[in-house]
Amino acid sequence: MSLHRTQAGWLLIGAIMTLGSPVVKGLLPRMLLLWRNSFPRSNKELESEKARGDAFTWQVTLEGRAGALSVMHSFLLNCPDLLNEDITRRLLTPIESALAMLVKWSPIAKSMASIGTQSTPDAAKVSTAAARPGVAVATEDRSEISAGV
């Protein structure tokens, strides 16, 4: 249930980004907070995550991060006029954290043999649907996720 809520939440937020700057401007402080809280704030916090949880916990975590990155992408595409030096600086922190996690991903995936195959298709679904609102994405079980606006 939490996995589906995470996916649905980020899909909805990604769709809101397509409404443009007038709508997003008032929501931007909350969005920056959501983006910041979706990723570890430091390398030390990232290191401590390695020992955290089981495969499902990692799947939910990765879904949240994929959704956050997708919404950031949608924000950059649909609201470029809201981008300033401060916003850019605040967006770089989660992006740097995502890149740092990619470097450390291999040992985590090996320690949880099933996580590599479980999270990748779902992360791609969230990423694709949130980045391209209006596009329905077929899942492995032949259901669809649509981020139409």
Automatic annotation (TrEMBL):
Biased composition (Basic and acidic residues): 139-149
GO biological process: endocytosis; intracellular protein localization; retrograde transport, endosome to Golgi
Annotated spans, Disordered: 130-149
This protein's name: GD19438
A GO CC term assigned to this protein in UniProt: cytosol
Top-level division of the source organism's lineage: Eukaryota
Organism: Drosophila simulans (Fruit fly)
PANTHER family cross-referenced by the UniProt entry: HEAT REPEAT-CONTAINING PROTEIN 5B, HYPOTHETICAL HEAT DOMAIN-CONTAINING
UniProt signal peptide: none
GN (gene name): Dsim\GD19438
